[in-house]
Amino acid sequence: NFQNKLYLLEAEEAFCYDDIQSAESFYEKASSSARKHRFINEEALAQELAGHFFLEKGKKGAAVEYFMKARENYLEWGAVAKSNSLFEYAQGLLSAKSSLGTCTFPDFSSSTSGPSDNGEKKKGKRMPLWSE
């Protein structure tokens, strides 16, 4: 079943286009679908990415809540190092201001053959920052 993955992709796309309501809805659908089908690692991923979304939107409390849910799921799945890393990240958010950024991605809109040969990245629409 790939439903949760589709929801997660739709959430990330909505995030990129700053469609806050759709993004929130799709993150929740992705998490619920993964839970329903017992994909604990994918539920954790959806929750972690939702945490980054809420953090970017200035909702630190909601972000930490999602990070802690993701942490529990990663731990249940057996990803102890990932769980510990996410816990430390969430604790850092509670104790200090975080700096957020955006990243760039390749612009494929002008070419049908993919990225340019030189691998250059162009400034595009804002993409979520989901890694430290």
Structural class: mainly alpha
| Shape category | flat
Ends distance: 30 Å
Radius of gyration: 16 Å
Order of helices and strands: HHHHHEE
Count of DSSP E strands? Answer: 2
Sheet with the most strands, sense and barrel status: 2 strands, antiparallel
The total count of helices amounts to 5
Question: Would you write up a description of this structure?
Answer:
The chain has a two-stranded antiparallel ribbon with strand order 1-2. The chain is mainly alpha-helical and 132 residues long. It has helices at residues 3-16, 20-36, 40-56, 60-77, 80-95; strands at residues 103-105, 122-127. The longest helix is centred in the middle third of the chain and has 18 residues, at 60-77. It has five helices and two strands; from the N terminus they run αααααββ. The two termini are 30 Å apart. The radius of gyration is 16 Å and the shape is flat.
What's a concise summary of this model?
The chain is mostly helical and 132 residues long. It has helices at 3-16, 20-36, 40-56, 60-77, 80-95; strands spanning 103-105, 122-127.
Give the tags:
single chain, mainly alpha, two-stranded antiparallel sheet
Furnish the topology, listing elements before pairings.
Blueprint: H1 3-16, H2 20-36, H3 40-56, H4 60-77, H5 80-95, E1 103-105, E2 122-127
Antiparallel strand pairs: 1-2
Helix pairs in contact: 1-2, 1-3, 2-3, 3-4, 4-5
